[in-house]
Design a protein that fits this description.
6 strands
């Protein structure tokens, strides 16, 4: 079982004040770019938005897991956004999203991708942990909460 912490780093955690889903996605794509995880912001952003058009990645419980798998990536990574105010993400339970786990990586490692998704889902099912994530005050605190799982 892959621990999701191996895909995380404090420099890829952002505390965001945004108005909507697209603004949140743009901010996290920019963070992935500035931390060297992606080479092409536009390609990655469009891949994320195209995926959202198929079905919302808002899984409920105030959590969204937008993702893009592209042929030119070798390894998976996660960028985390903690939102000060929830945004509409068309979640299945109609909750406003406050925690975003953006996943990027290769399009040919489906098993590893599913393990990452499963790990994130396990983490966020716990209401106490979700509250701790939403109230975290630093990127290090966020990564520690996810490492200790």
């Amino acid at each position: 079982m892959n621990k999701i912490s191996k895909y995380l780093a404090p420099e890829r955690v952002a505390f965001l004040t945004v108005k909507d889903r697209d603004e949140a996605v743009k901010a996290l794509v920019n963070l992935a770019y500035t931390t060297g995880k992606i080479d092409d912001r536009t390609e990655f952003y469009e891949a994320i938005i195209d995926r959202e058009k198929i079905v919302s990645t808002g899984i409920g419980m105030a959590v969204a897991i937008p993702h893009a798998k592209l042929a030119n990536y070798d390894n998976f990574f996660i960028v985390v956004g903690i939102l000060s105010v929830g945004v509409d993400w068309n979640t299945i339970d109609e909750s406003l999203v406050r925690i975003i786990f953006m996943i990027g990586g290769p399009d040919d490692k489906q098993t590893e991708y599913l393990q990452i998704l499963s790990g994130i889902t396990s983490v966020v099912k716990d209401e106490g942990r979700r509250k701790l994530l939403m109230n975290a005050s630093s990127p290090r605190e966020v990564t520690e909460l996810l490492e200790n799982f």
